[in-house]
């Protein structure tokens, strides 16, 4: 009997969730020739504007208490999540691609340019509840699979930037000089990260708080970037050090 009750409860829960999500779609402003595959999971009383000729695939989660605007000819792939708090604004340009299982979550204002790719498995959010920065991503930038962006402080990524798979950008650290607390339980320190136009960040790179990576710079795969990188230079290693100037 308990198994039967559980099955019925689960079926009814899924059914009403789908009905609620479907009803929310009538509140969304969806452009001509856009396709929203059901089922999706929608919630929140915010404003969602989807441009023309967009494609929202099955099992996408849109939880919006603030505002989301998605430009024309964009695609949000299966199981991706857009979670926007009451004070949050997410503005996405045209021809945007968000891969499977990626997640964007903010209560701040984020701006993502045209023809930006956030590949599958990426997670972009503040890793600390107490603080949250803004995010700007320029046109034609590609963020590789399974990358993590910690937007505890501001992150600015220019145009035509390539970030390799499994890379991490941190904008916060912890104070660890209090003998009465664990090293990771000290106060939070945040610093912004800037990646300028045309930079190439290799796979499995870690960028630490406060770093600026200059225009057209190259960071070798597997590097840990602890200091600023000059424009048109190649750096690599742990910690990343100057290797040579680029030919650009």
* CATH class descriptor name: Mainly Beta
Strand order of the largest sheet: 2-5-8-11-14-17-20-25-28-30-31
What is the name of the CATH topology? UDP N-Acetylglucosamine Acyltransferase, domain 1
Distance between the termini: 72 Å
CATH superfamily: Hexapeptide repeat proteins
Poorly predicted regions: 8-18
Which term fits the overall shape? globular
Count of folded domains:
1
Spell out the key features of this protein.
single chain; 248 residues; mainly beta; UDP N-Acetylglucosamine Acyltransferase, domain 1; eleven-stranded mixed sheet; nine-stranded parallel sheet
List the helices and strands and how they pair.
Blueprint: H1 2-25, E1 29-30, E2 35-36, E3 41-43, E4 47-50, E5 55-56, E6 61-64, E7 67-70, E8 75-76, E9 81-84, E10 89-92, E11 97-98, E12 103-106, E13 109-112, E14 117-118, E15 123-125, E16 135-137, E17 142-143, E18 148-150, E19 155-157, E20 162-163, E21 168-169, E22 172-174, E23 188-190, E24 193-195, E25 200-201, E26 206-207, E27 212-213, E28 218-219, E29 224-225, E30 233-236, E31 241-245
Would you mind describing this structure in some detail?
The chain is about 10% helix and about 35% strand. The chain is mainly beta.
In short:
With 248 residues, the chain is mainly beta. Helix content is 10%, strand content 36%.
